Each structure stands twice: as structure tokens, then as C-alpha cells.
Amino acid sequence: MSWVAHDMEPYALQRHLGKRVAIIPLIIGSYAPDMLSKWFVYGISVFGLKLKADDPAQFHRGWPGVGFTHSLLFGVLVALLILLLTKRNIWAFSFLIGQWSHALTDTGDTVGTMLLFPWTQHFAIGAWQYAGQTGRFNDAGAYFSGLGFIWDGIWIVAATFGWRVLTRSYFEDTVALGDPIWTWGISVFPMAVVLALYRASYFYGVCRWITWVLWAHVVHDFPMDLSWGGPMWAAAASASGTSGRMVTMPLGAGCASGCCGGLRL
Predict the structure, then answer these.
(1) Structure confidence by residue, pLDDT tens digits, 45-90
(2) Residue ranges in 38-175 assigned as alpha helix (H)
(3) Angle formed by the axes of helices 72-86 and 23-35, to 10°?
(4) Please, which contacts does 106-110 make with residues 24 or more away whose CB atoms are closer than 8 Å?
(5) Nearest CA to 26 among 190, 169, 159, 172?
(6) What is the distance in angstroms between the CA of the first residue and the CA of the last residue of the chain?
(7) What global pTM score does this model have?
(8) SS3 of residue 228 by DSSP
């Protein structure tokens, strides 16, 4: 799973797609798969009762489970529902692009996603460990000690290079004109409040990345391991541990150095 990439992806996409997307459904789409599942992966307490999946990786990414939320088909179905209810193509398209970016990004870990559900094979590059089954803090320690935190850093850089999307002029000329929600917001709230809401996911992601890196390596002493598939000390889950089957397809040693590694499906 990714910790920060899903906060950054909408702004990087906004930079390239401009008025063709609406940022709110784009962000909702980017968050949607985990909004429906991640709380049960780590567990929550309700009136003293602990609610947590018996097999977090199976629940999160597998079938039976809610792994279909990380599939391309899920994005299509929800986008069609949005189109049916709102009659707004831009909202449906934006949700679809956001959800697809999430599903594709999460192929980077050792469990991967069932991109082509109902075909239950998992696509997994395997660049970093999936450790969600170990709990939120151990998962954070593992993620920010391996290539996962580098991947998030790349998205932060990509979004930051598109810094103009965070400016007031871009917001007024591109974002607000493409989505009536912002027109309403500007008529009700001060511009400073509206801009803060628009920029919130970006700054939340940056602060989250910095905070977790400091937590993992300054407050605590998790061993750094930037090897492919690391950190090797983590109790990782893999697609072979869910109902899905994997077939490894190497993509070349050159890609494994930083662009890509093996494709498992």
C-alpha cells in the first residue's frame, strides 16, 4: 500500500489534465479504495470492542474480501453511477482517473491488486513490503524504511514541480471554472478558506511524509533497507498468501534499479 502517493496523485494529474478534471472527485477517487477497507485492516475500537479483519491482507486486497475496490472495474462502475446520478461527465471521469491511479500505484507492493477483477490474479511489482497485517505502526516503520517512501517522495516531487496548480490564479482560471462546487464555495466562504480546502490534500501529504520519516528514523530506529522488495526484516504479506495466484514476469534488470522490477500477476 502507499501512504502518501494518493494525496499527491490528484495534483500531479490536475497539472496535466487541467479543465478536463474536477479536483474533488479526483481526490475522492484517489482515496476511495482505502476509505472502504483500510480502517478494518488496522482495526478500530468501538465502545471497547476491537474490530479488525482476521486476515488483513486477504480482506484488503483479496477475494473473498474487498480487494475489488482496487480494481479497474470498480472505478468504472462507480463512475457510471456518478454519471447516472449527477449527469456530469467531468465528475465521473475525474473519479475514474483518481481511482485508477490508486489501483495502479498499489501494484508496487508485494501483495499488489486485482486490477482485472473478477479475474482474481494479482498484479504486483513487489518493490516494497506489504505489512498492513502487522498493524499501523509496524506497517509505517516498514514502509518508510524501504522503497515505498522513495515512491511517495517521487510523487511529492512530481506534484511540487506542478506548483502552479496550487496558486490562486490557477485555481480561479482552471479549477473553479470546471466545477460548480467551487463556484458555490466561493460565494459562501472567504477565498482564503476555499483555497485552503483546495490545497489541503497536498499539504497533508507532504507533512505526513516528513512526519512518518522522522518518526521511523529519528524517534524510532527502524533499519533502512532500500533493496528491491525490502525491508527484508518486515513480516511481509504477498499475493500468494491471499486467494489470488501470481505468475512472475521479469521486466529486466535495468528497470529494477529504479523504474520497475518484476511483474507478478
Answers:
(1) 888 888 899 999 999 999 999 999 999 999 999 999 999 999 999 9
(2) 38-42, 56-61, 72-86, 89-105, 136-143, 147-161, 168-170
(3) 130
(4) 106/1, 106/2, 106/33, 106/61, 106/70, 108/2, 108/147, 108/148, 108/151, 109/1, 109/2, 109/148, 110/229, 110/236, 110/237, 110/238, 110/239
(5) 159
(6) 16
(7) 0.89
(8) coil
